[in-house]
Amino acid sequence: MTTVIKHGHLIEPSAGISAPMDVLIEDGRVAKMGENLEGDETIDAAGCVVCPGLVDIHVHFREPGFESKETIASGSRAAAAGGFTTVVTMANTNPTIDNAGMLEFVNRRARETACIKIRPAATATKGMMGEEITEMAELKAVGAVAVTDDGKDIPSSWVMRRVFEYANMVDLPYLAHCEDHSLMDNGAMNEGYNSTRLGIPGLPKAMEEIMIERNARLAELTGARLHVQHITTARGIEILKIYKDRGVRITGEVTPHHFTLTDDAVLEFDADAKMNPPLREQEDVDALKRAIADGTVDCISTDHAPHTPTEKDVEFAEAPFGILGLETSLGLVLTELVEPGLITIEHAVKLMTSAPSDILGLEAGVLREGGPADIAIFDPKAEWVVEPARSASLSRNTPFGGKTLMGLVKTTLCDGEVVYAHDAGVRVC
Ligand SMILES: [Zn+2]
Ligand SMILES: [Zn+2]
Q1: Partners of 50 in the beta sheet?
Q2: Percentage of residues in the chain with pLDDT exceeding 70?
Q3: For residue 427, what pLDDT is reported?
Protein backbone atom coordinates (compact mmCIF):
# COMPACT_ATOMS: atom_id res chain seq x y z
CA MET A 1 0.00 0.00 0.00
CA THR A 2 1.49 3.34 -1.09
CA THR A 3 0.31 6.93 -0.79
CA VAL A 4 1.49 9.79 -2.95
CA ILE A 5 1.24 13.49 -2.12
CA LYS A 6 0.84 15.15 -5.51
CA HIS A 7 0.93 18.65 -7.00
CA GLY A 8 2.46 20.28 -3.89
CA HIS A 9 5.46 22.58 -3.46
CA LEU A 10 8.04 20.71 -1.39
CA ILE A 11 10.11 22.71 1.10
CA GLU A 12 12.82 20.61 2.75
CA PRO A 13 15.23 22.96 4.55
CA SER A 14 18.03 20.52 5.43
CA ALA A 15 18.44 19.49 1.78
CA GLY A 16 17.79 23.01 0.50
CA ILE A 17 14.79 21.88 -1.58
CA SER A 18 12.06 24.35 -2.55
CA ALA A 19 10.40 23.08 -5.73
CA PRO A 20 7.27 21.42 -7.09
CA MET A 21 7.72 17.76 -6.11
CA ASP A 22 5.62 14.72 -5.23
CA VAL A 23 6.28 12.57 -2.17
CA LEU A 24 5.69 8.81 -2.27
CA ILE A 25 5.04 7.07 1.06
CA GLU A 26 5.38 3.35 1.68
CA ASP A 27 5.15 1.54 5.05
CA GLY A 28 5.22 4.83 6.96
CA ARG A 29 8.44 5.95 5.27
CA VAL A 30 9.32 8.30 2.46
CA ALA A 31 9.96 6.00 -0.50
CA LYS A 32 10.71 8.70 -3.08
CA MET A 33 10.60 12.44 -3.66
CA GLY A 34 10.40 13.59 -7.29
CA GLU A 35 8.22 14.43 -10.24
CA ASN A 36 5.17 12.55 -11.53
CA LEU A 37 5.08 9.84 -8.87
CA GLU A 38 2.13 7.44 -8.62
CA GLY A 39 0.73 5.49 -5.64
CA ASP A 40 -2.31 3.44 -4.58
CA GLU A 41 -3.79 6.45 -2.79
CA THR A 42 -3.39 10.13 -3.64
CA ILE A 43 -3.43 13.21 -1.43
CA ASP A 44 -3.91 16.29 -3.60
CA ALA A 45 -1.66 19.11 -2.37
CA ALA A 46 -2.31 21.57 -5.21
CA GLY A 47 -1.59 25.12 -4.06
CA CYS A 48 -0.03 23.80 -0.85
CA VAL A 49 3.39 23.62 0.74
CA VAL A 50 4.52 20.11 1.65
CA CYS A 51 7.21 20.08 4.34
CA PRO A 52 8.60 18.01 7.20
CA GLY A 53 6.17 17.73 10.12
CA LEU A 54 6.72 20.77 12.34
CA VAL A 55 8.84 20.48 15.50
CA ASP A 56 8.18 22.35 18.75
CA ILE A 57 10.81 21.95 21.44
CA HIS A 58 8.79 23.76 24.13
CA VAL A 59 5.27 22.58 25.09
CA HIS A 60 3.43 21.86 28.35
CA PHE A 61 1.05 18.89 28.17
CA ARG A 62 0.20 18.88 31.92
CA GLU A 63 0.07 15.10 32.36
CA PRO A 64 0.47 13.83 35.04
CA GLY A 65 -1.21 16.05 37.58
CA PHE A 66 -3.20 18.66 35.67
CA GLU A 67 -5.22 16.57 33.23
CA SER A 68 -8.14 19.01 33.22
CA LYS A 69 -5.87 21.54 31.44
CA GLU A 70 -4.34 19.15 28.89
CA THR A 71 -3.29 15.54 28.48
CA ILE A 72 -0.66 13.96 26.30
CA ALA A 73 -3.52 12.80 24.04
CA SER A 74 -5.28 16.18 23.74
CA GLY A 75 -2.02 18.09 23.45
CA SER A 76 -0.88 15.82 20.66
CA ARG A 77 -4.18 16.37 18.82
CA ALA A 78 -3.68 20.15 19.10
CA ALA A 79 -0.13 19.68 17.83
CA ALA A 80 -1.28 17.61 14.84
CA ALA A 81 -3.91 20.26 14.04
CA GLY A 82 -1.10 22.83 13.96
CA GLY A 83 1.04 20.73 11.60
CA PHE A 84 3.39 19.40 14.30
CA THR A 85 4.61 15.81 14.39
CA THR A 86 7.31 16.08 17.09
CA VAL A 87 7.14 18.03 20.35
CA VAL A 88 9.36 18.23 23.41
CA THR A 89 7.28 18.23 26.59
CA MET A 90 8.39 20.22 29.63
CA ALA A 91 8.80 18.51 32.98
CA ASN A 92 6.87 20.81 35.38
CA THR A 93 4.02 18.36 35.86
CA ASN A 94 2.86 16.98 39.20
CA PRO A 95 4.89 15.03 40.10
CA THR A 96 7.70 16.54 38.07
CA ILE A 97 9.61 14.41 35.55
CA ASP A 98 12.72 14.18 37.72
CA ASN A 99 13.48 10.44 37.67
CA ALA A 100 13.64 7.59 35.17
CA GLY A 101 10.34 6.07 36.37
CA MET A 102 8.42 9.29 35.68
CA LEU A 103 10.07 9.70 32.30
CA GLU A 104 9.06 6.14 31.41
CA PHE A 105 5.51 7.00 32.49
CA VAL A 106 5.46 9.86 29.95
CA ASN A 107 6.89 7.56 27.28
CA ARG A 108 4.23 4.93 28.01
CA ARG A 109 1.36 7.46 27.94
CA ALA A 110 2.78 8.82 24.68
CA ARG A 111 2.87 5.33 23.15
CA GLU A 112 -0.67 4.59 24.33
CA THR A 113 -2.41 7.89 23.63
CA ALA A 114 -0.44 10.30 21.43
CA CYS A 115 -0.96 10.61 17.67
CA ILE A 116 2.41 12.35 17.18
CA LYS A 117 5.93 11.92 18.57
CA ILE A 118 6.52 13.04 22.15
CA ARG A 119 10.14 13.60 23.19
CA PRO A 120 10.18 14.40 26.91
CA ALA A 121 12.53 16.75 28.73
CA ALA A 122 13.43 15.99 32.35
CA THR A 123 13.99 18.38 35.22
CA ALA A 124 17.53 19.50 36.01
CA THR A 125 16.92 19.50 39.78
CA LYS A 126 14.79 17.18 41.91
CA GLY A 127 11.23 18.40 42.18
CA MET A 128 12.44 21.58 40.44
CA MET A 129 13.53 22.79 43.86
CA GLY A 130 16.79 24.18 42.50
CA GLU A 131 18.93 22.23 44.95
CA GLU A 132 19.66 18.58 44.23
CA ILE A 133 20.70 17.61 40.70
CA THR A 134 18.78 14.83 38.92
CA GLU A 135 20.33 11.59 37.64
CA MET A 136 20.80 12.93 34.13
CA ALA A 137 22.62 9.86 32.78
CA GLU A 138 19.70 7.63 33.79
CA LEU A 139 17.18 10.13 32.43
CA LYS A 140 19.00 10.27 29.12
CA ALA A 141 19.16 6.46 28.97
CA VAL A 142 15.34 6.27 29.07
CA GLY A 143 14.86 8.99 26.47
CA ALA A 144 15.19 12.48 27.99
CA VAL A 145 16.28 14.83 25.19
CA ALA A 146 17.13 17.80 27.44
CA VAL A 147 17.07 18.96 31.04
CA THR A 148 15.13 21.99 32.19
CA ASP A 149 13.41 23.45 35.23
CA ASP A 150 11.17 25.45 32.86
CA GLY A 151 8.49 27.27 34.77
CA LYS A 152 11.30 28.79 36.79
CA ASP A 153 15.05 29.21 36.80
CA ILE A 154 17.64 27.78 39.15
CA PRO A 155 18.28 30.55 41.70
CA SER A 156 21.70 29.39 42.92
CA SER A 157 24.54 30.05 40.49
CA TRP A 158 26.52 27.30 42.24
CA VAL A 159 23.80 24.73 41.52
CA MET A 160 23.46 26.06 37.98
CA ARG A 161 27.16 25.52 37.41
CA ARG A 162 26.90 21.90 38.63
CA VAL A 163 23.85 21.34 36.41
CA PHE A 164 25.80 22.58 33.39
CA GLU A 165 28.79 20.39 34.29
CA TYR A 166 26.70 17.25 34.68
CA ALA A 167 24.55 17.99 31.63
CA ASN A 168 27.67 18.57 29.57
CA MET A 169 29.18 15.29 30.78
CA VAL A 170 26.15 13.34 29.54
CA ASP A 171 25.76 15.65 26.51
CA LEU A 172 22.28 16.99 27.26
CA PRO A 173 21.37 20.63 26.56
CA TYR A 174 19.87 22.79 29.29
CA LEU A 175 16.67 24.64 28.32
CA ALA A 176 16.64 27.84 30.33
CA HIS A 177 13.58 29.74 31.49
CA CYS A 178 15.50 32.90 32.35
CA GLU A 179 13.96 34.70 35.29
CA ASP A 180 15.53 36.17 38.41
CA HIS A 181 12.66 35.22 40.67
CA SER A 182 13.81 37.53 43.46
CA LEU A 183 12.64 40.43 41.26
CA MET A 184 9.15 38.93 40.80
CA ASP A 185 7.37 40.99 43.47
CA ASN A 186 3.87 39.73 42.53
CA GLY A 187 4.44 41.05 39.03
CA ALA A 188 1.78 40.07 36.50
CA MET A 189 2.72 41.97 33.32
CA ASN A 190 5.61 43.87 31.73
CA GLU A 191 6.85 46.69 33.96
CA GLY A 192 6.41 49.94 32.08
CA TYR A 193 3.95 52.62 31.08
CA ASN A 194 0.98 50.25 30.79
CA SER A 195 1.56 48.52 34.13
CA THR A 196 1.74 51.90 35.88
CA ARG A 197 -1.44 53.03 34.13
CA LEU A 198 -3.31 49.86 35.03
CA GLY A 199 -1.92 49.64 38.56
CA ILE A 200 -0.74 46.07 37.96
CA PRO A 201 2.62 45.12 39.50
CA GLY A 202 5.28 44.82 36.80
CA LEU A 203 7.88 42.27 35.75
CA PRO A 204 11.00 44.26 34.76
CA LYS A 205 12.88 43.27 31.63
CA ALA A 206 16.04 43.12 33.73
CA MET A 207 14.59 40.13 35.54
CA GLU A 208 14.90 38.10 32.34
CA GLU A 209 18.11 39.67 31.02
CA ILE A 210 20.07 39.13 34.25
CA MET A 211 19.45 35.40 34.03
CA ILE A 212 20.17 35.13 30.30
CA GLU A 213 23.52 36.80 31.06
CA ARG A 214 24.26 34.62 34.12
CA ASN A 215 23.33 31.40 32.36
CA ALA A 216 25.36 32.36 29.30
CA ARG A 217 28.41 33.13 31.48
CA LEU A 218 28.09 29.75 33.20
CA ALA A 219 27.64 27.97 29.87
CA GLU A 220 30.86 29.66 28.75
CA LEU A 221 32.61 28.63 31.97
CA THR A 222 31.57 24.99 31.70
CA GLY A 223 31.41 24.53 27.91
CA ALA A 224 27.86 23.20 28.26
CA ARG A 225 25.01 23.64 25.77
CA LEU A 226 22.49 26.34 26.69
CA HIS A 227 19.21 26.95 24.90
CA VAL A 228 17.48 30.16 26.01
CA GLN A 229 13.71 29.79 25.99
CA HIS A 230 11.13 32.46 25.14
CA ILE A 231 13.37 35.54 24.74
CA THR A 232 11.23 38.68 24.90
CA THR A 233 13.46 41.76 25.13
CA ALA A 234 15.74 43.69 22.78
CA ARG A 235 18.55 43.46 25.33
CA GLY A 236 17.99 39.71 25.75
CA ILE A 237 18.63 39.35 22.03
CA GLU A 238 21.81 41.47 22.33
CA ILE A 239 23.12 39.17 25.06
CA LEU A 240 22.37 36.09 22.95
CA LYS A 241 24.32 37.61 20.07
CA ILE A 242 27.30 38.58 22.22
CA TYR A 243 27.71 35.03 23.52
CA LYS A 244 27.18 33.50 20.09
CA ASP A 245 29.94 35.75 18.77
CA ARG A 246 32.16 34.56 21.63
CA GLY A 247 31.70 30.98 20.45
CA VAL A 248 29.63 29.86 23.43
CA ARG A 249 27.32 26.92 22.70
CA ILE A 250 24.15 28.98 23.03
CA THR A 251 20.92 29.04 21.03
CA GLY A 252 17.70 30.99 21.48
CA GLU A 253 14.00 30.75 20.70
CA VAL A 254 11.16 33.25 20.35
CA THR A 255 7.43 32.50 20.65
CA PRO A 256 4.80 33.69 18.14
CA HIS A 257 2.91 35.68 20.80
CA HIS A 258 6.02 37.62 21.80
CA PHE A 259 6.75 38.71 18.22
CA THR A 260 3.07 39.49 17.53
CA LEU A 261 1.69 41.29 20.59
CA THR A 262 2.78 44.08 22.92
CA ASP A 263 1.58 44.71 26.47
CA ASP A 264 -1.19 46.83 24.95
CA ALA A 265 -3.02 43.50 24.76
CA VAL A 266 -3.31 43.61 28.56
CA LEU A 267 -5.24 46.92 28.49
CA GLU A 268 -8.54 45.03 28.41
CA PHE A 269 -7.48 43.12 31.55
CA ASP A 270 -7.59 39.99 29.38
CA ALA A 271 -6.05 37.09 31.32
CA ASP A 272 -5.36 35.38 27.98
CA ALA A 273 -2.70 38.06 27.47
CA LYS A 274 -0.97 36.98 30.66
CA MET A 275 2.10 34.84 30.34
CA ASN A 276 5.60 34.59 31.80
CA PRO A 277 7.78 36.13 30.50
CA PRO A 278 5.16 38.75 29.70
CA LEU A 279 4.28 40.60 26.50
CA ARG A 280 6.74 43.49 26.17
CA GLU A 281 6.82 46.75 24.19
CA GLN A 282 6.99 47.67 20.50
CA GLU A 283 10.77 48.20 20.50
CA ASP A 284 11.17 44.65 21.82
CA VAL A 285 8.79 43.16 19.26
CA ASP A 286 10.75 44.96 16.53
CA ALA A 287 14.06 43.61 17.90
CA LEU A 288 12.69 40.04 18.06
CA LYS A 289 11.54 40.26 14.44
CA ARG A 290 14.91 41.64 13.30
CA ALA A 291 16.73 38.87 15.17
CA ILE A 292 14.53 36.21 13.60
CA ALA A 293 15.20 37.65 10.15
CA ASP A 294 19.00 37.97 10.60
CA GLY A 295 19.42 34.48 12.05
CA THR A 296 20.30 35.45 15.64
CA VAL A 297 17.17 33.62 16.78
CA ASP A 298 17.54 29.91 16.10
CA CYS A 299 13.96 28.67 16.17
CA ILE A 300 10.31 29.36 16.90
CA SER A 301 8.75 27.56 19.89
CA THR A 302 5.23 27.97 21.21
CA ASP A 303 5.52 27.49 25.01
CA HIS A 304 2.02 25.96 24.61
CA ALA A 305 0.70 26.38 28.17
CA PRO A 306 -2.94 25.35 28.64
CA HIS A 307 -5.06 26.55 31.57
CA THR A 308 -8.79 25.91 31.98
CA PRO A 309 -11.37 28.69 31.47
CA THR A 310 -12.23 28.58 35.19
CA GLU A 311 -8.62 29.23 36.12
CA LYS A 312 -8.28 32.10 33.64
CA ASP A 313 -11.70 33.62 34.38
CA VAL A 314 -10.52 35.54 37.45
CA GLU A 315 -8.99 38.93 38.15
CA PHE A 316 -5.91 39.58 36.02
CA ALA A 317 -3.53 39.54 38.98
CA GLU A 318 -4.85 36.13 40.13
CA ALA A 319 -4.88 34.35 36.76
CA PRO A 320 -2.16 31.78 35.97
CA PHE A 321 0.56 32.57 33.39
CA GLY A 322 0.45 30.98 29.94
CA ILE A 323 -1.44 30.61 26.67
CA LEU A 324 -2.08 27.98 23.99
CA GLY A 325 0.21 28.03 20.98
CA LEU A 326 0.27 24.92 18.84
CA GLU A 327 -2.70 25.59 16.57
CA THR A 328 -1.83 29.24 15.84
CA SER A 329 1.97 29.07 15.56
CA LEU A 330 2.32 28.44 11.81
CA GLY A 331 -0.46 30.95 11.04
CA LEU A 332 1.23 33.68 13.10
CA VAL A 333 4.64 33.00 11.53
CA LEU A 334 3.15 33.23 8.03
CA THR A 335 0.96 36.25 8.81
CA GLU A 336 3.42 38.30 10.87
CA LEU A 337 6.78 37.35 9.35
CA VAL A 338 6.40 35.88 5.85
CA GLU A 339 3.51 37.93 4.45
CA PRO A 340 5.12 41.31 5.29
CA GLY A 341 8.35 40.08 3.67
CA LEU A 342 10.53 39.88 6.82
CA ILE A 343 11.53 36.28 6.09
CA THR A 344 11.04 33.85 3.23
CA ILE A 345 8.67 30.92 3.53
CA GLU A 346 11.69 28.60 3.31
CA HIS A 347 13.24 30.33 6.33
CA ALA A 348 9.93 30.06 8.18
CA VAL A 349 9.74 26.32 7.55
CA LYS A 350 13.34 25.90 8.71
CA LEU A 351 12.65 27.80 11.96
CA MET A 352 9.84 25.33 12.68
CA THR A 353 11.42 22.04 11.50
CA SER A 354 15.12 21.30 11.07
CA ALA A 355 16.35 24.24 13.17
CA PRO A 356 14.64 23.26 16.45
CA SER A 357 15.36 19.60 15.76
CA ASP A 358 19.08 20.32 15.32
CA ILE A 359 19.28 22.20 18.62
CA LEU A 360 18.39 19.03 20.54
CA GLY A 361 19.73 16.52 18.03
CA LEU A 362 16.29 15.04 17.46
CA GLU A 363 15.70 12.79 14.49
CA ALA A 364 12.91 15.01 13.22
CA GLY A 365 12.20 17.97 10.99
CA VAL A 366 13.66 16.42 7.84
CA LEU A 367 12.26 14.49 4.88
CA ARG A 368 14.57 12.05 3.17
CA GLU A 369 14.14 8.81 1.29
CA GLY A 370 13.97 5.95 3.78
CA GLY A 371 13.16 8.30 6.68
CA PRO A 372 9.84 8.56 8.56
CA ALA A 373 6.95 10.11 6.62
CA ASP A 374 6.27 12.89 9.16
CA ILE A 375 4.75 15.55 6.93
CA ALA A 376 2.75 18.78 7.13
CA ILE A 377 0.68 20.04 4.19
CA PHE A 378 -0.55 23.64 4.38
CA ASP A 379 -2.06 26.25 2.10
CA PRO A 380 0.11 29.34 2.71
CA LYS A 381 -2.41 31.73 1.15
CA ALA A 382 -5.64 30.41 2.71
CA GLU A 383 -7.10 32.63 5.43
CA TRP A 384 -8.93 31.32 8.49
CA VAL A 385 -10.33 32.75 11.69
CA VAL A 386 -9.10 31.47 15.08
CA GLU A 387 -12.05 29.94 16.94
CA PRO A 388 -10.95 28.92 20.45
CA ALA A 389 -14.11 26.81 20.90
CA ARG A 390 -12.93 24.52 18.11
CA SER A 391 -9.45 23.97 19.51
CA ALA A 392 -8.33 20.37 19.92
CA SER A 393 -6.79 21.38 23.25
CA LEU A 394 -8.75 20.86 26.47
CA SER A 395 -8.15 24.54 27.25
CA ARG A 396 -9.22 27.73 25.46
CA ASN A 397 -6.68 30.31 26.64
CA THR A 398 -5.61 32.11 23.50
CA PRO A 399 -5.52 35.90 22.95
CA PHE A 400 -5.94 35.30 19.20
CA GLY A 401 -9.63 34.34 19.18
CA GLY A 402 -11.34 36.06 16.24
CA LYS A 403 -8.04 36.95 14.53
CA THR A 404 -7.69 36.15 10.83
CA LEU A 405 -4.52 34.25 10.03
CA MET A 406 -2.93 33.13 6.78
CA GLY A 407 -1.74 29.59 6.29
CA LEU A 408 -4.16 26.76 6.83
CA VAL A 409 -2.91 23.32 7.82
CA LYS A 410 -4.68 20.84 5.52
CA THR A 411 -3.16 17.51 6.47
CA THR A 412 -0.64 16.21 8.99
CA LEU A 413 0.91 12.77 8.62
CA CYS A 414 2.94 10.96 11.26
CA ASP A 415 4.79 7.83 10.13
CA GLY A 416 2.69 7.97 6.97
CA GLU A 417 -0.65 7.94 8.85
CA VAL A 418 -3.02 10.88 8.54
CA VAL A 419 -3.28 12.23 12.10
CA TYR A 420 -5.06 15.43 11.13
CA ALA A 421 -7.12 16.32 8.09
CA HIS A 422 -8.74 19.75 8.00
CA ASP A 423 -11.82 18.62 6.10
CA ALA A 424 -12.34 15.41 8.09
CA GLY A 425 -11.57 16.67 11.59
CA VAL A 426 -8.99 15.19 13.91
CA ARG A 427 -8.13 11.53 14.00
CA VAL A 428 -6.03 9.86 16.63
CA CYS A 429 -3.98 6.88 15.63
ZN1 LIG B 1 9.19 29.23 30.77
ZN1 LIG C 1 7.39 26.87 29.20
Answers
A1: 10, 377
A2: 99
A3: 47
CA-to-CA distance for 410 and 78, rounded, in angstroms?
14
Ligand nearest 278 Cα, by number? 1
Dihedral pair phi/psi, residue 267, rounded to 5°: -60, -25
Q: Among 147, 194, 217, 199, which Cα is nearest to 175's? A: 147
Contacts of 45 (CB under 8 A, 6+ apart): 5, 6, 7, 8, 377, 410, 411
Q: Which ligand is nearest to the CA of 178?
A: 1
pLDDT for residue 425: 55
User: Which residues have CB atoms below 5 A from the ion given as ligand 2?
Assistant: 150, 303
Q: How far does residue 203's CA lie from ligand 1's centre (Å)?
A: 14
Q: Flag residues of the chain having pLDDT under 70.
A: 424-429
Buried-state track 237-256, b at ≥16 Cβ within 10 A, e below 16: bebbbebbeeebbbbbbbbb
| Cα torsion 240, 242, 245, 246: sign | negative
Ligand 2 center from residue 305 Cα (angstroms) = 7
Which of 284, 298, 303, 415 is catalytic? The answer is 303
pTM for this one? 0.98
Task: Please confirm, yes or no, whether 303 is among the known catalytic residues.
Answer: yes
Rg for the chain, CA atoms, rounded: 20
Q: How many CB atoms lie within 10 A of CB 217?
A: 17
